[in-house]
Design a protein that fits this description.
Blueprint lengths: L1 E6 L1 E4 L5 E3 L2 E3 L4 E4 L3 E7 L4 E10 L5 E3 L2 E5 L2 E7 L4 E8 L13 E4 L2 E5 L5 E7 L5 E3 L3 E4 L2 E7 L5 E7 L11 E3 L5 E3 L3 E4 L3 E5 L5 E7 L5 E3 L2 E5 L2 E5 L1
Antiparallel strand pairs: 1-11, 2-7, 3-4, 5-6, 6-7, 7-8, 9-10, 10-11, 12-13, 13-14, 14-15, 16-17, 17-18, 18-21, 19-20, 21-22, 22-23, 23-24, 25-26
Length: about 240
């Protein structure tokens, strides 16, 4: 949460006007301070004057009355006076903020992953797609062909779908493994999606091989082949 604050001034000026940052203002004049606060000069017949904040202004130019809030795009802005008499403008993510172009609650697919836009514009993994577009919910496993396929979302934000050949998922003997760029271990014969765009497998010799590349819409592009999807041409070399 970001905050900006300003203090209201009360002074006496024989010129019957307001002086602020070296500038002189007449009674009723307004201006914007720090690109965030709408200031106004107020004077009295006895020469007393004050500069007060009448409202806040967002970077997009929207005005927020004191002690009120405004939703502007993905953010909610609040303009208020604190206990010390300071005017504070705070910015927080709007509960209904978008995830890029996706509305809150909307789901979309990126390669082999299904995401949903959560509260505050948080992108959440919902499920993964295995062979033949079999859907595996996040944190769950499913038998697909000769593999046990698992969809995982790690605490560091990494998402992964990987498979282990059936009958070896609980093996205790030493087996050949591949280690990917994130330090994850993969048994020989297993496959996984790396960096959301490469379908990789672990060979019996422990070598990591790329089977194909995956476009954003989930289309698989084999090595040295060209695939046309609508107006887009993909080629993995």
């Amino acid at each position: 949460m970001e905050s900006v604050l300003l203090i209201v001034l009360f002074l006496i000026n024989p010129l019957n006007g307001c002086i602020h940052d070296g500038n002189t203002y007449k009674d009723g004049d307004t201006w914007v301070e720090k690109d965030a606060f709408i200031m106004q000069c107020r004077t009295k017949d006895d020469g007393a004057w004050m500069v007060e904040i009448t409202a806040c202004k967002t970077p997009s130019g929207e005005t927020i009355a004191l002690n009120s809030s405004l939703v502007d795009g993905n953010y909610e802005w609040k303009c208020s006076k604190n206990e010390d008499g300071q005017i504070v403008m705070q910015k927080t993510l709007n509960e209904n903020a978008k995830c890029d172009e996706h509305e809150r609650g909307e789901q979309w697919r990126e390669t082999s992953f299904l995401f949903e836009c959560g509260a505050g514009g948080q992108k959440k993994l919902i499920a993964c797609f295995g062979q033949n577009n079999e859907q595996i919910n996040v944190g769950e496993s499913k038998e697909i062909g000769e593999f046990i396929v698992k969809c995982e979302n790690f605490s560091n934000g990494t998402v992964m779908i990987h498979g282990v050949r059936k009958g070896t998922e609980n093996a205790t003997t030493s087996e050949v493994e591949c280690i990917d760029s994130k330090g994850e271990h993969h048994a020989a014969g297993s496959w996984w999606i790396d960096d959301q765009q490469y379908n990789k497998t672990c060979s019996s010799s422990g070598k990591t091989e790329v089977l194909n590349c995956i476009a954003k819409d989930g289309t698989k592009i084999p090595l040295n082949e060209e695939v046309n999807v609508g107006d887009t041409k993909y080629k993995y070399v």
